[in-house]
UniProtKB/TrEMBL annotation:
It comes from Fusarium oligoseptatum. Residues 247-262 have a biased composition (Acidic residues). PANTHER family: NONSENSE-MEDIATED MRNA DECAY PROTEIN 2 UP-FRAMESHIFT SUPPRESSOR 2, REGULATOR OF NONSENSE TRANSCRIPTS 2. This is MIF4G domain-containing protein. It comes from the Eukaryota. GO terms for cellular component: cytoplasm; exon-exon junction complex. GO terms for biological process: nuclear-transcribed mRNA catabolic process, nonsense-mediated decay. Residues 238-279, 419-451 are annotated as: Disordered. Residues 419-435 have a biased composition (Basic and acidic residues).
Length: 492
């Protein structure tokens, strides 16, 4: 919907709130046919699209509709919950505006606003806790999907002046039957008067105020991408023109070619935000408070991911593998963190805030742990595919993985020492030894051992000194391998 049309609708809808009549022209004789009126209600519930908009507006002009208002309110709410694309939302806003202008706030708008508020309310925590984990996750996904579109509808209706505040709603008698589904009750106000927060701001406060897990962050991203200019007065980052936000949060650029510019080249009044500076600051304040909490969440999760990555990497170095469940859990955490950071960046751009410095956090954590076995966890994760993996380069990988065959370089007697000792021990089993002879043999052996130990200590010390002196000269793989073999042959 172009901005000029939005402002035109806003002027008409404001007049309807002021009590003016005949804002939406209707025929002199209205059709009260049951078939046509019920058909209108049925299509209102399921078929609001850009293609059917003209038909709906014509029927609002020609059908009586008045005695079916309760059904119309319920069907209209259900139809609005089904909207997804920008074209569908635009058609819904036009239809609701037409009904608002024809029937006025007291007969239509206050009731549809109550249902919209109820649809955007957060669910009762006690009800969610009573559900099984799978059912709770499913319920939350369905709520996010439903509220993603409904938040845009509510905000667009506020921008064109159909809904105002929670002071301006009334609970319908029977329009709620079967319409709202499993959502919480709307917390309506009792003190009518000036100074109340606008409808979408109250909705955001309810969604974000107690969202410690930041499950509603995707909803806020949709809001910011859709209304950063109209409400916050901030042009989308890197945008030459305005952007259309799709259901999944992606954007498509659409330059405003209809907005006139004055002689200085600045946009005319038709391209100005719909909110005053004071109102923009109220929205920005709510977003900033929530964003500060999101930053803490990001930092905590980043530390947890880095700690898990270190444990996985060390396990891989020690055992050569990481359990699949541990790796899958790590990858799930990384993907969730990436989504969280990406969404937070959108909010940061809109309010001019700084993102947490995750790189410094990673460096400090790496520097604080100098233990053996710490490897580059990012490289480890990539090692599951092609490339050197956890090693710095291919030469380092070959150094640790391509082991020397010791059978061709070391005397077999050294490799079979364990078997020989075992055989010698077995031969002694079963022989009868005289106690006196054994005691004499032990004394002579101890004396000989003492003498040989003193000589061996001096010899081993000299060999160790020589080995240590050679360490700075070990500059390539072949020299290292030869030194290791010499060490084995020296039997230190």
């Amino acid at each position: 919907m172009d901005r000029a049309r939005k402002r035109e609708l806003r002027a008409l809808n404001d007049k309807a709130w002021d009590g003016e009549k005949d804002l939406f022209p209707v025929g002199k004789t209205l059709d009260s046919s049951l078939k046509k009126n019920t058909a209108f209600i049925k299509r209102l519930r399921t078929a609001i699209t850009a293609a059917t908009l003209s038909t709906f507006l014509q029927e609002i002009r020609t059908l009586s509709l008045h005695k079916y208002l309760s059904e119309i309110i319920s069907a209209c709410y259900e139809g609005l919950c089904r909207l997804k694309s920008p074209g569908e939302i635009e058609a819904g806003v036009e239809i609701v505006s037409a009904l608002h202008q024809r029937f006025g706030p007291s007969e239509f708008t206050e009731y549809i606003a109550w249902l919209l508020g109820k649809g955007m309310a957060t669910p009762d925590k006690s009800i969610l806790k009573a559900l099984a984990p799978e059912a709770r996750e499913k319920e939350e996904k369905e709520r996010i999907t439903r509220q993603r579109a409904l938040l845009r509808v509510v905000t667009e209706l506020w921008l064109v002046g159909v809904v105002r505040t929670l002071d301006d709603v009334s609970r319908p008698d029977d329009a709620t039957k079967g319409a709202a589904g499993k959502v919480a009750e709307l917390k309506t106000r009792t003190n009518k008067g000036a100074g109340a927060d606008p409808f979408p701001l109250e909705v955001l406060k309810d969604l974000l105020g107690y969202d410690r897990e930041h499950a509603n962050l995707p909803l806020l991203v949709i809001f910011v991408k859709s209304f950063s200019w109209d409400i916050l007065g901030v042009k989308p980052t890197g945008a030459d023109g305005r952007k259309t936000v799709e259901e999944d949060g992606t954007t498509e650029g659409n330059e405003d070619t209809n907005d006139e510019k004055d002689e200085s080249g600045m946009s005319s009044g038709s391209d100005q935000p719909f909110t005053e500076p004071e109102m923009r600051e109220r929205f920005r304040s709510v977003l900033k408070k929530y964003f500060d909490d999101v930053k803490g969440h990001i930092t905590r999760d980043q530390k947890s991911i880095q700690s898990q990555a270190r444990r996985n990497a060390e396990a891989y170095v020690k055992s050569g593998e990481v359990f699949e469940d541990r790796q899958a859990n790590y990858e799930k955490q990384v993907k969730a963190q990436e989504r969280l950071v990406s969404n937070a960046q959108v909010i940061a751009d809109a309010i001019g805030a700084e993102m947490p410095d995750l790189k410094d956090s990673d460096d400090s954590l790496g520097a604080s742990n100098g233990s053996i076995g710490l490897v580059k966890t990012g490289d480890y994760l990539r090692s599951m595919g092609d490339g050197a993996g956890i090693w710095e380069d291919e030469d380092e990988r070959r150094f640790y993985e391509n082991l020397v065959d010791l059978k061709g370089k070391v005397p077999p007697i050294l490799l079979e020492d364990g078997k020989k000792k075992k055989t010698d021990t077995d031969e002694q089993v079963g022989k009868k030894i005289d106690p006196a002879e054994a005691a004499e043999t032990a004394k002579s052996a101890d004396s000989a051992d003492d003498q040989s130990t003193a000589i061996a200590n001096r010899t081993i010390g000299a060999q160790v000194d020589a080995l240590l002196a050679r360490l700075p000269e070990l500059t390539n793989k072949d020299v290292v391998d030869q030194t290791a073999i010499d060490f084995l042959l020296s039997q230190l």
